[in-house]
Design goal:
Number of strands: 29
Strand order of the largest sheet: 17-18-19-20-24
Helix content: 10-25%
Shape: globular
Number of helices: 7
Structural class: alpha+beta
Largest sheet: 5 strands, mixed
Strand content: 35-45%
Amino acid sequence: MNLPTHLLSDAPLSPITNVTISTKPSSLFATATTEGWVVYRVHPLEVISRREFPNSSLKIVLPLAQTNLLFLVGGPPSPLYPPNKVLFWDDKLGKTVAELEFREDVRGLAARRDRLIVVLRRRVLIFVLAEGLTGVWREGVYDTTDNPTGVVALATEEGSSLLAFPGRQPGQVQIVRLPPLDTQTPPLPPPPSHDPTTTPFPSVSIILAHTSTISALATTPSGSLIATASEKGTLVRIWDPSTSQLLKELRRGTDSAIIFGISFRKDGGAICVSSDKGTVHVWDLGSSREKRKQESESSDRQKQFNILKPYLPKYFSSQWSHSQFRLPPPAPPPSRLPFSLSNSETGRSTPTIEDDVCICAWIEVPRNELPAQATSAAEPAAAGPVIGGDASSTRKGKGREGSSASKENKWRQPSPHEAHHRRTSSAQPEPPSPIPPTVESQIVALTHSGGWFRISLDGESKTPVPGAPPPPSFGLGKDSTSDCRLEEYRRFGNRDGW
């Protein structure tokens, strides 16, 4: 029996092995692939650096902000470098300039201009980076609980000092204060008497964040807030690192999920979370919504419910997401087998969104928008004579009036006062002053299957513009998706990237 061939997909499998988005703010991201790596600028999307090495894969590619340095860690399937080494790659020179070797595989990295954080399975090591990479010194080490995914959070804004990583017990978060970041003054090496096997800075506090293992950590660029998620993936908690106080409890859902990414907006007013459920959740942490919530709770019925809150499960007290964006499933693997035999004989099933990995981050997109009020106020004087013709015909009609008086006064020299009045009235109206460009916070979602999504939120806060109408409220509720708008979509290719 001849069966017709059913084409499932002609798209090759994505070569992406990992995606890293650099902060300060999120202006660059790097894709580690099975053929090397590519560094992009987030907006506008363009390639900054590309290195291709056939059959040479990487696990981590981390660009150091405002430098030519990249930190590289090899990974499966064909490691370009050993997975227990961190290579310092100078992209301007096109070669490695330093390396760090360990006795076990490197699980994660975080960096700012003067510090490199290396995460191992049960340890976190701190290294001092000298100006121009003239020296790299090991500053100290901290013990942690089992941390196979390399969870760590580091503040990278000027003057920030926060470093957060798992504590010695599951569910704990350890807070350490590094020296404040000063990009003008190069860091000094540790003194000769310093023991690099000890903790260089005392732990400020230990937060009992969850009852199970920490799976995701994030902080604002300034280090004013911390977000944590456990391996259950149902709750995301917001903490004040200075007081170890729980500020908010955000509910992603009721079923377990793997949290892939947590990202704060630059001002800490919103947060986005991506998981293996294929949905990017957004919460508004601003005071405006809190104010509206307090006003709504003033009713008698709400007051009665608040009395019962301490006795109800946490499901009723946690805050649901205000906006959601559902990602499409990845493309199926290429196959030209008959449709009825493609899954049964090969043992492959059509991939779902749960099979993909998604990383999300906030970016700032400049917008040069002219408010409608300013446009309408400036147009009538110039547009009237051109479009309608009423103003010009009216002036012609007035010119034909008062024949004798007009002829007598036609050649009379005007007085100085009249001349000044004529010059003032005949002067062209001044053009409206240029309006400064607005800046809109948007979300970028990157998937290992090769999807690039730039998402905007209706009502997302912008910098105020004179004459512009106030933006609508943020979000439409926990079940709403209409307030998320896809601004840009790209597909990763083997050669040209996105």
